[in-house]
């Protein structure tokens, strides 16, 4: 298993969730549901773009997905995904793009259970 970046967090950013959703449990639950049931699939599209080194699609999908990370409390992943987008836009080496994706994806995979647990807690 690859090492995690030093700034990796192991919990959802509840302060950010409160800033975005306030006391509205139903709004947060809608965001969590949409992320887990609809948006998460788009990360597979992004992964395919990384594998094929389709820089335009990496930039477009990454830009589309960044806000969703904050909306569900994965604030620390926003920065990582922005870095991937920047690499794609700057025409960086394909190895750098792939590595950036692998670090991001590993952390995302470890955080999904926390998002699922938050959804269960709110239900």
From TrEMBL:
Gene3D superfamilies: HPT domain. Coiled coil: none annotated. It comes from the Bacteria. Residues 32-111 form the HPt domain. InterPro entries: HPT_dom_sf, Sig_transdc_His_kin_Hpt_dom. This is HPt domain-containing protein. It comes from Nibrella viscosa. The lineage of its organism: Bacteria, Pseudomonadati, Bacteroidota, Cytophagia, Cytophagales.
């Amino acid at each position: 298993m690859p090492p995690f970046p030093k700034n990796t967090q192991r919990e959802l950013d509840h302060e950010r969730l409160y800033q975005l959703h306030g006391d509205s449990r139903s709004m947060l639950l809608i965001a969590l549901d949409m992320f887990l049931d609809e948006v998460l699939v788009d990360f597979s599209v992004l992964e395919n773009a990384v594998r094929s080194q389709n820089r335009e699609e990496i930039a477009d999908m990454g830009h589309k997905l960044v806000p969703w990370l904050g909306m569900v409390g994965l604030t620390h992943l926003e920065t990582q995904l922005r870095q991937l987008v920047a690499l794609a836009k700057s025409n960086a080496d394909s190895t750098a793009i792939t590595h950036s994706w692998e670090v991001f994806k590993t952390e995302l995979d470890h955080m999904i259970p926390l998002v699922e647990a938050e959804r269960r807690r709110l239900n």
